[in-house]
Design goal:
The complex is a heterodimer of chains A (about 280) and B (about 400).
Chain A (H helix, E strand, L loop, with lengths): L16 H10 L4 E7 L5 H13 L5 E4 L10 H12 L4 H12 L6 E5 L1 H7 L1 H11 L3 E4 L8 H9 L3 E2 L1 E3 L5 H10 L4 E4 L13 H13 L4 E4 L5 H9 L4 E4 L1 H9 L4 H17 L8
Parallel strand pairs in A: 1-2, 1-9, 2-3, 3-4, 4-5, 6-7, 7-8, 8-9
Helix pairs in contact in A: 2-12, 3-11, 4-6, 5-6, 10-12, 11-12
Chain B lengths: L5 E2 L2 E2 L8 H14 L3 H15 L5 E3 L1 H7 L2 E6 L9 H14 L4 E6 L3 H12 L4 E6 H6 L1 H9 L3 E5 L6 H15 L3 E3 L10 H24 L5 E6 L3 H7 L9 E9 L10 H4 L1 E5 L2 E5 L24 H8 L3 E7 H15 L5 H15 L7 E6 L7 H7 L5
Helix pairs in contact in B: 2-4, 4-5, 4-9, 5-7, 9-10, 13-14
The chains are: A alpha/beta (about 280), B alpha/beta (about 400).
Chain lengths: ~280, ~400
């Protein structure tokens, strides 16, 4: 169990990304950041799933807001988005969801959204609600730096992190540009492609981690295709400050839709295992 | 990017970071080759010898008499594969070849763009895969077979609404995973920059020819140019020839479906609101949260909840008037053109025909000269129209 270090009702007491990454680093670990789609498969079960994350070693949370057309995501996350939307999730309910999570944890919470959800609500209202709900950082999957000027200004106005992705295809020049706009951490895309559980981590991912590290002082977390404890261990040992696990956990939900108690249990023990592999010292 | 790809505030590159380098590479190649002598010559060769350009600007005498206007048809329906789509697939296919890409992917709704891509892939010897919603695969088996005969692999898409927008999502995902060797051949003036600009460029041959011919035949510009709008490529193509001639009325006709006031409509510009879908800021059909709605039209080519960003710009600046006609009205347009002129139009183009009749009936419009962009032929729609007419074929 992760003890509450702070009074989570006071937004000032929410742990920042900087504090969190520093804390895990001091322990000689990497950050374990599990992802789920808010409201998958329904609001209350989804809260329970996040509680499993928190109780089993999550250092931060990455919460997806469901979108009808998630082009950056693979089939697992898209199916989760659809389940969530079908269960009646709306953007406002997603903020309510975050507020509920804040009742039991103060670890950093990042959200992953598609920009149309922000644009439709209006940037000011969206970022305001995000701040009030207790969110630390916003990553819009389809908002590259070229289009992100307004979002970055708004994030700074509300003292929120604006998080960006970098990928193997991102040039060093672009990395430097992105780093200037990014606050919180850099989301490093591990494999060439979309989210989805994969069987091995390519050497190119290791090279990318090193390349990003040499261009940025921001903490980095590697996501996309991190599906096994060995992957987590590999990326942490390659120099990443954290590992984001999405599809592999969502697949547990997908496979246990008729037995959600079992899903929660499996997710709990899987998280424990994933967190364990962020600790460098385990079998050298 | 070298240019920002904005039309006013619309357009842009709202895509995941992974795609950006591919867009940069594509923009760079497009700007380099679009006026390159060898490229232009080769493209003109294929447009002429493979696709059958130029197409005629046909004076539809019987329809003119019926409408009380002078009606010209820009005969894109005469092109190889039966629609204007091939102007763009030849352009982008050739560009992909110049860029050294070894694989083409495309999305398709009813199959017209898929076929136009498949034949170009075959002709240029570039392996081609076409994403198509599984609902559409089921509804358009004949077109699937045509693509397969041309050597393309058709991939049914089982996600979301299993129609065009999901095929686009899936094609984007493929491209994200295979950007190095693959060119994503988008079929309309939509998507992230440089697509809206590039597809318009390759379709602008329609407007160029239409303007040249109408000036030859009438010695003056037309009063109106009418085109149907789904994603908007045939309309952008013909409008581009006249957009600077402000005396010419430009009218974009959307698929109204069962009525713009109903949920079953494809009238994105008439009914939609500003939003971001498939890489650009434009108008979209969406709910209050920004979740994308499903579109509906009897015509698969107009059955899309988004629209090209330049159309959004032309709407808000008032340069183009966007209207919608219903399924029922479009079927009347289909029957009129078939019966009076012996030309069976695509259901998409039938929307433009149907609106031309309405335009002619507006007070003060009798005797005016109208160009209808006949973007495609109706062979593909035979079974559907027969069913609507309750005829057993």
């Amino acid at each position: 169990m992760k003890p509450f270090k702070n009074d989570s009702n006071n937004p000032n007491q929410i742990q920042s990304y900087q504090e969190m990454f520093q804390e895990v680093k001091n322990k000689g670990e990497g950050a374990f950041i599990p992802f789920t789609v808010a409201g998958d498969p329904d609001f209350e079960t989804s809260i329970e799933i996040v509680r499993q994350y928190v109780d089993n070693g999550a250092d931060a949370l990455e919460i997806g807001f469901p979108f009808s057309d998630p082009v950056a995501d693979g089939p697992s996350v898209q199916a989760a988005d659809i389940r969530s939307l079908n269960s009646g999730m709306t953007t406002d309910k997603c903020f309510e969801f975050i507020s509920r999570i804040r009742e039991f944890t103060s670890i950093p919470i990042g959200i992953l959204v598609y920009y149309n959800l922000i644009y439709k609500m209006g940037l000011d209202e969206f970022y305001n609600k995000a701040k009030n709900a207790g969110i630390n950082g916003i990553l819009a999957a389809d908002l590259p730096p070229e289009e992100a000027g307004d979002a970055v200004n708004m994030a700074s106005q509300y003292d929120l992190g604006q998080i960006f992705m970098v990928a193997q295809t991102t040039t060093n020049e672009r990395i430097s540009e992105i780093v200037k706009m990014c606050t919180g951490f850099l989301y490093v895309v591990a494999v060439m492609g979309i989210t989805g559980a994969r069987s091995d981590i390519k050497k190119s991912t290791v090279d990318l981690i090193k390349r990003v590290k040499s261009h940025s002082d921001l903490p980095i977390a590697v996501g996309f295709g991190i599906s096994k404890p060995e992957h987590v261990k590999d990326v942490i040992q390659s120099g990443s400050d954290g590992a984001i696990v999405a599809s592999a956990i969502i697949n547990i939900i997908t496979q246990n839709l008729d037995d959600l108690d079992n899903a929660k249990q499996e997710i709990g023990s899987f998280c424990k295992e994933l967190k364990g592999s962020t600790k460098n010292k385990i079998d050298g | 990017m070298i240019t920002n790809g904005k039309f006013g505030k619309y357009g842009g590159i709202f895509v995941p970071e992974l795609i950006i380098p591919a867009l940069e590479e594509l923009e760079e190649a497009f700007l380099r080759y679009k006026d390159d002598e060898k490229f232009v010559e080769e493209l003109e060769f294929y447009l002429r010898e493979f696709a059958g350009r130029p197409t005629s600007l046909y004076h539809a005498k019987n329809l003119s008499k019926k409408f009380g206007c002078k009606v010209y048809l820009k005969r894109e329906d005469m092109l190889h594969t039966g629609a204007h789509k091939i102007n763009n697939t030849l352009g982008q296919g050739l560009l992909a070849k110049y860029m050294g890409k070894t694989r083409l992917i495309a999305e398709t709704g009813a199959g017209q763009h898929g076929i136009a891509t498949a034949v170009v892939g075959a002709m240029l010897s570039i392996p081609t895969e076409v994403y198509m919603g599984s609902e559409d695969v089921e509804r358009q088996k004949l077109n699937v077979f045509r693509m397969e005969l041309s050597g393309s692999n058709v991939i049914p898409v089982e996600t979301g609404s299993k129609t065009l927008k999901d095929a686009i999502n899936e094609a984007f995902r493929d491209w994200i995973s295979n950007v190095e060797n693959t060119h994503y051949l988008i079929g309309s003036t939509m998507g992230p920059h440089p697509y809206p600009t590039m597809v318009k460029h390759f379709q602008s041959v329609i407007g160029k020819e239409a303007k040249e011919k109408i000036l030859q035949k009438e010695e003056e510009l037309p009063d109106a140019v009418i085109a149907c709008v789904g994603g908007g490529s045939n309309a952008m193509g013909i409008f581009s020839g006249f957009v600077d001639d402000t005396a010419v009325d430009l009218i974009g006709v959307e698929g109204g479906g069962e009525g713009v006031e109903t949920k079953r409509t494809g009238a994105t510009l008439c009914k939609g609101t500003e939003g971001i879908l498939h890489g650009s800021l434009s108008f979209v059909l969406q709910d209050n949260d920004g979740q994308i709605s499903e579109a509906h039209s009897v015509s698969a080519g107009l059955d899309y909840p988004g629209v090209g960003p330049e159309h959004a710009y032309l709407k808000v600046t008032g340069r183009v008037n966007y209207v919608a006609v219903t399924n029922k009205e479009a079927l009347r347009g289909f029957e009129l053109l078939s019966k009076y002129e012996g030309i069976i139009p695509a259901l998409e183009s039938s929307h433009a025909v149907a609106y031309a009749e309405k335009y002619a009936n507006i007070e003060g419009n009798k005797g005016k000269t109208i160009i209808i962009n006949l973007s495609g032929r109706g062979d593909k729609d035979m079974f559907l129209v027969a069913k609507e007419m309750r005829v057993d074929v």
